[in-house]
Amino acid sequence: MNIKGQHYRTIWEKNERTIQIIDQRALPHQLVIEDLNSYQAAAIAIKEMHVRGAPLIGATAAYGMYLACLEAMEDNFDIFIKKAKTTLEATRPTAVNLFYGINAVFEAISKGISKKEKTQLALKAARQVTEESVLQCEAIGQHGLEIIKEISAKKNGERVNILTHCNAGWLACIDYGTATAPMYAAHDAGIDIHIWVDETRPRNQGARITAFEFQEHGIPHTVIVDNLGGHLMQHGLVDLVIVGSDRTTRTGDVANKIGTYLKALAAFDNQVPFYAALPETTFDWSISDGLKEIPIEERGSDEVKYIQGWNGNSIEKVLLTPKESPALNYGFDVTPAKYITGLITEKGVCEANEASIKEMYFSE
Ligand code: MRU
Predict the structure, then answer these.
(1) Helices 97-110 and 115-154: angle between axes, nearest 10 degrees
(2) Is 246 one of the catalytic residues?
(3) How many angstroms separate the CA atoms of 9 and 145, rounded?
(4) What whole-number distance in Å separates Cα of residue 202 and Cα of residue 308?
(5) Which residues touch 184 (CB under 8 Å, ≥6 apart)?
(6) Which residue in the list 175, 239, 246, 284 is annotated as catalytic?
């Protein structure tokens, strides 16, 4: 997608030793490009959320494994790679894409004989993880577009109001986004849409990043506090909710940014269709009970206690709470499948239940 008219992806190869990313901590106020030259730098970028969003976490981890191969040349290659794998795996626990990206490259490496061949295979696999995400998001956009088209037709072309939470946009992926891909597709197809953007405390990915994306693409949007969604739904001001997913069970439970569950409850109570848009890489096929089996990340309390913004000259962080007040910061919650109208995937739209998901992915 574009920033100031120039096309960007969120991660790319500067040269064969350097991977570049957009440091999302500075958005929307500054566009900071960061070089990653080691797997340790990739691990820090994921853990400290220079990059974030499930598909981008996976791609960064995949490139991190490739960088580890370059660093391992002078070392015991296999031991070094295993250490890099363990470090990358320990960065963030919830988005299953992290493990998908790491394993895709690790398996590719294991097929090589020489260090050089292993490194080449690692690069090829990291590129594959990245390109695959772009294609998946584009396809999600086309399938989700049909849902928006239908609502628009029912409203005789009147504006369709869509609510989204956090940032499941192109900045959370490589391009297009998951939840936002149908919105970009609908806007580009000339459908009149408007997006309610949840600010998404504590790190404000909605207010900072989703709003930035829509502003750059010219999509009408309004930033709202996280608690407004229910009220808007009660008053008929939301036609559709689309969110992303960090981990999806084979039964259709979805873990996404903290607060997603409350939006699903409000949507359910007000008969507002609630969709999760997600690629195959967010499925954890080994689990069936999201509440019991999805590991939920707990982050530092300072993210709740402090708030960051632009003071006119620079980005500043200020204390919000009494200095000594404790704060609790779970990053994700699980929305049980029963509250989800459907899953928008790269294969099409299915119901959030095991049979429907199975049919979508595993039938000929
Ligand atoms: O903590 P984050 O910013 O990595 O969380 C991101 C989200 O929860 C997104 O909604 C999610 O990754 C969905 S997919 C693009």
Answers:
(1) 150
(2) yes
(3) 22
(4) 10
(5) 1, 141, 176, 177, 217, 219
(6) 246
Query: Residue 317 and residue 311: Cα distance in Å, rounded?
Result: 9
Collapse the DSSP code of 279 into the 3-class scheme (helix H, G, I; strand E, B; otherwise coil) and give the result: coil
Q: What is the pLDDT of residues 155-180, one digit of tens each?
A: 999 999 999 999 999 999 999 999 99
| pLDDT reported for residue 151 | 98
Average pLDDT estimate for 285-309: 98
| CATH architecture assigned to 2-132 | Up-down Bundle (1.20)
Q: Is the distance from the beta carbon of residue 59 to the nearest atom of ligand 1 less than 6 Å? A: no
Ligand 1 pocket residue status of 144, Cβ below 6 Å: no
Structure tokens at 174: 């490589």
> Distance (Å, rounded) from C-alpha 106 to C-alpha 125?
9
Q: Are 136 and 346 in contact (CB under 8 A)?
A: yes
In the reported structure, the alpha carbon of residue 52 is separated from the centroid of ligand 1 by a whole-number distance in angstroms of 7
Report yes or no: 256 and 333 within 8 Å, Cβ to Cβ.
yes
Instruction: Give tens-digit pLDDT for 104-135.
Output: 999 999 999 999 999 999 999 999 999 999 99
110 alpha carbon – ligand 1 mean position (Å) = 30
**Strand partners for 22:** 33
Cα–ligand 1 centroid distance for 200 (angstroms) = 11
**Is there an atom of ligand 1 within 6 Å of 242 CB?**
no
Q: Is 142-362 a domain of CATH 3.40.1390.10? A: no
Q: Residue 220: is the preceding peptide bond cis (ω within 30°)?
A: no
Domain with CATH 1.20.120.420 in the chain: 2-132
Ligand 1 pocket test, candidate residues 1, 140, 256, most atoms within 8 A of CB = 256
